[in-house]
Amino acid sequence: MPSGRTVKLILYEVLEFACLCVPVFVVLERFASLLSFVELNNRTAYWLVVAASIAYVTSVSLFVWVPLKYFILKSRGFLEEVTHWRPVTLAHALLCTLPCFAIVISSSKVQLDAEILHDHFNELPVSLVLFALICVDIVERIRPYRLRGQDRLDFEVPGPVLTHLEQVSTVSSQLQANRAANGSVLRSEGINTSPTGRWANMDGISRTSSTAYLYSHSHYDFGCLRFMCVRDPRHELFLETFVFWLDTVEMIRVAGVQKIYYSNWVFPIYILSFLSILRGVLTPHNPMLTTLGVVAQDLPFLVLRVCLVILYGYVTPILYIMKNLLSCLTFVYFHFLTKLKVFNRGSMF
Q1: What is the tens place of the pLDDT at every residue in 5-42?
Q2: How is the chain split into domains, by residue range?
């Protein structure tokens, strides 16, 4: 009976291999159908493209994918310590995503040259390519986590937790020290120094307030909504991954609009989208990820979207234009302008 780790490893590898092969087969089959239609139902062209797709997937799997996975599994610790990038994601982007994008662009060029509007690859192939890329990204990120059992972070702590607290001098403790040093003077002036006196009451109020403060910040009572106050890093990983690719997905969706797909604008859209996909090669905590996101995605997408809106109208939502604009402006301001003397004054807000 194989262990749970072995089953999880086999599941991950089969899923990644399927994400490598299936999009290539689907995109090339659609391209073969397009060539067969353009050449008046020429079945020879269709089967040649299908055979080429099978040969490509077989050769890539045997000579690139399998040796790469074997090397990574054998030296995973070395790669995690030395590098800050993910070779599996890079290999998938180069071996699957890039050829599929090239086939989609070629299909547009074929239809433009033949002046036949037959198939613009608007939904299934492109969505499948992007979904396969997202699945590979999720698999690479979720590997350190368990698939079974609970691995969640609760918003609510079961109760107040007592830890070692270092005593901090307060006003009341200073008053007590002064009272002990000048006890005779205080007695002569008739000031009440008993435990039930004024200073003792103030000290009791201070300690009670501190205890209430610690208790209120270590225990949250949500009542009947307590079952909703849970967090699971595995679930959040799925959400973060889809949000990470959302801007690129929207950019490629714009290329599926018919009046854009049958134009030369499809070339810069897919080229810039692939450059933004290369961000996923870096690990999520790589310090270069923010800079690469602005240089390879937000700035080119901002210029491209503004041009598309000017020429074709609102083919892309204004929300994404504002997202790219604010991302570029805040990056320049917080990383460069705040270092200048005029923006680095303590008197300014």
Answers
A1: 888 899 999 999 999 999 999 999 999 988 888 877 77
A2: 4-152+232-252, 157-219
